[in-house]
Amino acid sequence: MQYLGLGSALTAALVSLADAVPVTDLPIAGSTTSDVFPPPSTTVDAKLFPPESVVGYPGTTVTGIEPAAAETATSYPYNNGSTGEFPLIAPAPHGQSSHSSSFDIKKYWGNLSPWYSVPSTDYGLPESTSPLIPSGCDITQLHLLYRHGARYPTSGAAPASFAAKVANATTTGFNATGDLTFLADWTYKLGAELLTPFGRTQNFLLGVEYRQLYGKLLNNFTAQGAIPIFRTESQDRMVKTANNFAAGFFGVPEYLDQVNIEILVENLGVNNSGAPYEICTNADITSRGSIGSTAATTFANNAFNKTLARLNSEVSGITFTPTDAIAMLELCSYETVALGYSAFCDLFTEQDYLNYEYYFDLSFYYNNGPGSPVSAAQGKGYLQEFVGRFTQTYPTAESSLNETYDDNPTYFPLNQSIYADATHEVVVLDTLTAFNLTPLFMGEPLSLDHNAHSNSFVASKLVPFATHFTVQVLECPAYQPTKQMRFIVNDAVVPLNGTYAGCSYDADGLCSFDNVVSVLQTRLDEIDYDYDCFANYTAEAGVNYNGRAPRNADSILT
Ligand SMILES: *[C@@H]1O[C@H](CO)[C@@H](O)[C@H](O)[C@H]1NC(C)=O
Ligand SMILES: *[C@@H]1O[C@H](CO)[C@@H](O)[C@H](O)[C@H]1NC(C)=O
Ligand SMILES: *[C@@H]1O[C@H](CO)[C@@H](O)[C@H](O)[C@H]1NC(C)=O
Ligand SMILES: *[C@@H]1O[C@H](CO)[C@@H](O)[C@H](O)[C@H]1NC(C)=O
Ligand SMILES: *[C@@H]1O[C@H](CO)[C@@H](O)[C@H](O)[C@H]1NC(C)=O
Ligand SMILES: *[C@@H]1O[C@H](CO)[C@@H](O)[C@H](O)[C@H]1NC(C)=O
Ligand SMILES: *[C@@H]1O[C@H](CO)[C@@H](O)[C@H](O)[C@H]1NC(C)=O
Ligand SMILES: *[C@@H]1O[C@H](CO)[C@@H](O)[C@H](O)[C@H]1NC(C)=O
Ligand SMILES: *[C@@H]1O[C@H](CO)[C@@H](O)[C@H](O)[C@H]1NC(C)=O
Ligand SMILES: *[C@@H]1O[C@H](CO)[C@@H](O)[C@H](O)[C@H]1NC(C)=O
């Protein structure tokens, strides 16, 4: 450290002034020690809450090639909103000028969109509605359910098959011109399953944001002499997600000693509310849990003809199919969130992006939303846990709950002021369906052949990277009863009147805590987990099942 030409003694003195001042936790004037987190003598317990290396079951982890956007991108990610969302670069749709287009392609990528704020007006509340605590109320408790940030494609997803097809064509020789010229030199650089650098920032920033919004609730832990438990699953990206959230919330390296991160095993056959498809038979190995994927594929077969004709006219020695159109659109999304930039984005028009979004809408509405016969059953585990925390009662072991982790204060505390569980987008949507938050799905079941715009459901608003469902529990002296609560999805407040019996219209989306809990308990009784997950019924896309299986089964499968 001699680069300023200072003598080493002087350097040492400067360093000690700047960095090495001993830290003493003195409360600021006017506050008391009860306002300082963490409380004295608290520490994480690595025996009760072991790290990823001990828990195991990280799932598939495939490292990608290092990004090189400084060389590959056609513009630089200036932090002034001109090229996309810093540090990403995303162009205007094909045929539009980046100077005049206001169409943000990233908002039409379904579950591959980076999360963005959704206005409460989308679900019927006035423009004045805000996620800020309504004046006159105090927040007493926060429950957060959030998804991992951007990741590589899951194993076996379309982009890798497309890459293999291009590699094949390269060996036999293909020519590309015009917009597709880049394809001659293009190689596949993505890994699989892991969180990307941008994905890490999403969870980190969510942690920073929630500390700023709700840090005051840490004082409850100080009063109790405890540190929080935040939960996640064992897949590598899920562990890293919870760590990045905690790093943003508590700081680096403080998070290493201020929160116990509880890692629940995600693996076939293991009960886990955060990975219910691992034990709900109908969700996985039968067609009942994937009627949305089938509907989406059928829709895509007709949606990109015009663009495919243009792209096919620019190549010889390879022919692109509707499956390839989806794969190239996914490459646009994945390369952008993994590498910072993608040459594929430029190939598609505004209409293509609208169709791409609808492809995801169909997939998620019928796989994990109200059009699915197994979504409420899969969301039941989290619904039981939310209700357990609301009522300070351990949930009974059924659905995908893991009794070991749900029936004792060590692993399932009932007295926290802040809860934060990390999971997958399918489970977040299953949970919203289990909660029966119908304003999110208001209108006709989604049309299978075109976007009729007759439903409030939009996938990128509910299941994007780092999507988050927030429950605020409030004390509002002006209300009767004073204990109120409300639900917020990606900053949109969800109205409860006309949806939850006994909740009347409230511009802030508030309803009596006790009333909401009783509505949710009724909903729990209504969701027949065993039937929906294990019975041999027939279900089809095109119907709003309210997330529950039709009663047409001839037997229970085992
Ligand atoms: C952003 O910064 C770049 C580089 O200075 C500049 O070329 C561009 O015009 C700026 N865009 C906006 C919207 O300010
Ligand atoms: C690659 O070419 C071989 C031989 O023509 C074919 O069997 C295989 O299915 C092709 N693979 C892909 C991914 O197109
Ligand atoms: C919650 O209760 C448990 C056991 O009753 C106690 O050990 C723990 O410190 C409490 N935690 C908080 C955050 O109050
Ligand atoms: C509960 O989870 C543990 C590990 O996290 C696992 O070993 C056990 O099998 C699970 N229980 C059930 C019933 O799946
Ligand atoms: C689109 O192309 C497919 C063949 O890939 C064809 O079956 C279908 O009829 C076309 N759809 C429209 C709307 O042109
Ligand atoms: C590609 O272009 C070269 C040079 O024009 C030509 O010889 C070759 O046949 C073309 N290949 C295909 C698959 O069209
Ligand atoms: C595991 O899940 C099954 C349903 O899939 C449920 O019947 C059982 O009670 C759960 N077991 C435990 C120990 O949580
Ligand atoms: C947290 O502390 C505040 C202030 O004492 C209190 O009003 C609130 O009920 C506490 N929250 C919980 C969940 O105990
Ligand atoms: C909730 O109340 C508002 C205001 O009265 C009304 O416009 C809206 O239709 C109601 N929502 C439902 C689902 O009934
Ligand atoms: C499930 O139901 C279908 C249609 O009713 C029937 O054909 C099939 O044999 C049943 N499968 C099982 C395993 O019971």
CATH class: Alpha Beta
**Associated small molecules:** 2-acetamido-2-deoxy-beta-D-glucopyranose
Main beta sheet strand tally, sense and closure? 6 strands, mixed
Instruction: Return the CATH topology.
Output: Rossmann fold
DSSP E strands, number: 10
CATH superfamily: Phosphoglycerate mutase-like
Beta fraction of the residues?
A: 5-15%
Please describe what this structure looks like.
- The chain has 558 residues and is of the alpha+beta class.
- It has a single domain (17-514), classed as Phosphoglycerate mutase-like (Rossmann fold).
- Helices cover 35% and strands 9% of the residues.
- Strands 1, 6, 7, 8, 9 and 10 form a six-stranded mixed β-sheet that branches. It has a two-stranded antiparallel ribbon with strand order 2-5.
- Strand 7 and strand 8 form a beta hairpin.
- The longest helix has 18 residues, at 197-214.
- The N and C termini lie far apart (68 Å).
- Mean pLDDT is 92; it is low at 1-24.
- The chain binds 2-acetamido-2-deoxy-beta-D-glucopyranose (10 copies).
- One 2-acetamido-2-deoxy-beta-D-glucopyranose binds next to loops.
